Amino acid sequence: MVETLISVRMARLGDEDSIARVHDAAWRDAYRGVIPGRELERMVERRGPAWWRQAIRTGTRLIVLDFADTLAGYASYGRNRMPALGYGGEIFELYLAPEYQGVGLGKRMFEAARADLEAHGFPSFVVWALGGNDRAIEFYQRRGGTIVRRARERFGEESRERVAFGFE
C-alpha cells in the first residue's frame, strides 16, 4: 500500500520559493482572461520569493499545504481589512497549484485557516472572490458562504466585480 503524507502547517523561512511558484501558477490559471494580461503579469511579478520571505518574517498568518514533500498550496488570513462588514477575520488568499485542485485539498486548507482564525478570536470571517473566477465563487458557496457585499476593483483601465462571502 502507498501512503501519501498531506499536512497543513505554518509557513516558515525556506518556503518562499515554493509559495511564489504556487502563487504564480495559481494566479495565471485562475485569472487569465479575467484580469487584463499586463495587469496580471505585474501582480504576479510583485509576489516573488522576497515578498513571501518578508511576509513570513513579519509574522503574517500564512499556512501551507504539503503534499508528499511538495508545497502544493497556501492561505493567508488575519483581521478583516473592512470592519464595517461586521466580520472579525478575513481569509486574504487561498490558492492551490492547478495540478492539486479538485481533490479536496482546498477544503482542508480552508478548514485549517477557519480553525486558526477562530482560535485567535475571529469566529466570523469574510473572503473576497473576483467575479469571473467561477471556481472560487463555487468553492466558497459550497463551504456555506453567504454573499454579504459586492464591490468593483480596477485593473488598469478595466474594472471587475468582487464578491464578499461571509462565514459565521
Describe the overall structure.
The protein has a single domain, classed as Gcn5-related N-acetyltransferase (GNAT) (Aminopeptidase), CATH 3.40.630.30. With 168 residues, the chain is an alpha+beta fold. The protein has 5 helices and 7 strands. Helix 1 packs antiparallel against helix 2. The chain is globular, with a radius of gyration of 16 Å. A 7-stranded mixed beta sheet has the order 1-2-3-4-5-7-6, with helices on both faces. A hairpin with a 2-residue loop joins strand 2 and strand 3. The mean pLDDT is 95.
Number of domains: 1
Which CATH top level class fits?
Alpha Beta
The percent range for helix content is 25-40%
Q: Can you write the helix and strand succession as a string?
A: EHHHEEEHEHEE
Overall mean pLDDT stands at 95
Q: In CATH terms, what is the fold-level topology?
A: Aminopeptidase
* Weakly predicted, low-confidence segments: none
Distance between the termini: 40 Å
Major sheet attributes: 7 strands, mixed
Radius of gyration: 16 Å
Number of strands: 7
Strand content: 25-35%
Compute the number of helices. Answer: 5
Biggest sheet, strands in spatial order?
A: 1-2-3-4-5-7-6
Helix-and-strand structural type: alpha+beta
CATH architecture: 3-Layer(aba) Sandwich
Shape: globular
